[in-house]
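re: ur question from yesterday

yeah so i grabbed the chain u mentioned. its 459 aa long if i counted rite. heres the sequnce exactly as i have it in my notes:
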Amino acid sequence: MRPFHRPVLISTLAAAVLALCSCGSGSPSDGGVTLTITANAISGGKNSVSADWIKNWVIPRFEAAQKQAGRDVRVLFQPNGVDDEQYKTKVALDLKSRTGADVIDLDGIWVGEFAQAGYIKPLGEVGGAAVDSWDGWRQIPEAVQGLGVFEGKRYGVPQGTDGRILYYNKSLFAKAGLPEKWQPRSWQEILDAGTALRRLPGVTPIQINAGTAMGEATSMQGALPLLAGTGTEIYANGKWTGASQGVKDVLDLYRRIYAGGLGDPRLQQEAKGRDKSFAEFAAGKIGILAEGDYFWRSVIDPKAGVAPMAERDKVVGYAKIPARTPGAGIRGQDFVSMSGGAVRVLNPFSRHPRQAWELLAFLHSAEAVKAELAGAVRVTSRSDVNDEVLAGDPLLSFVSREILPITAYRPGLALYPQVSAALQEATADVVSGRSVEEAATAYRTKLERLSGNPANVTN
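ran it thru and got these structure tokens back, copy pasting raw so excuse formatting
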């Protein structure tokens, strides 16, 4: 969930007030409106910055704006500081019993699951016509809006997000006779660069996460962006993608990299292989690395990174992930990416859905989003905010301008984590020497078992 200490008395008071309400929120005795916000954040603990922002910035300003408009609105915050799955269970139980906060933070990966269960409804159905006419949508790229979309309908407003790209070492590229400004336009051009880098002693040409030890990083940094580059989604039209040509093409690329001497298969099998790949890239021992913008701002940051690169801004180049061939990506794209992030949704059982939407829209106004950053430099869902706060960071500006408009998201369905694990196993099979056909067939069989019916899988 997203990157929330008030005295216990306040939390207790809020709980007491909410206990009087049968669904979402209630009205105080003076005839005004009480709205509630919940998130997995708590001051002095998990996601403390977000908790402080809600309590100290959002609530007083929203209440003041409502008062100025002649409306008596009170906002309460329900903090949480628990494991993400515990938070998910709590919210699901609230919604199932038609209670809970009016505005709710959700991980984007949960949207489809909650929608299918009937726990949330499309924003327009809850908030009314004001939802579709909100001017904020024009500042959120359509691809980024996809984080809160399920089966073509908007269920949530995206919060911060990120993007996957290719990093490369310019010094190694120069030694290998490769251009300083590099933008591959196909998978073959990545392999060609790897072949040139292979001539350098002690250098691993390409690192694309594979196997089960890397966990979800294998899916998000490797398999899923590559799959998008074949024009294929892991879930589409109500079915999971099994042993399709796209899946086989992805597995074959892994085979060409790791069986062809362009990648280090041992890294994919080590418990801390991903961390080791970070260290090796920082040390100039990996030529090309597929990762998210987290790698730039938290791993190789010259001052605060876990594997700092003093010459990062000079040595590290970055490029978009190409489709298999130009135009072969999803939506006919030449380049692709994957993103993660959280959304905020409306409680469909709120007693004050129109006011709840006003609060949700306020939370995602440009002014509020900038305040939430609290001086940090991170990619947000709003292009206007990104243009301002990312101006001094070339990589994050690149992600905002070039990656977010072409990105895609994981399906927000309960079965996805198991499907992802099966996909990771398929990449592990290929890296360890199993044939593409065998790995794809085993993957399809697992999907048919997981989904409960072969008809739920398309090949």
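noticed a couple things. DSSP finds 19 helices and 16 strands in the chain. also Confidence is low (pLDDT under 50) at residues 1-29.
anyway ttyl
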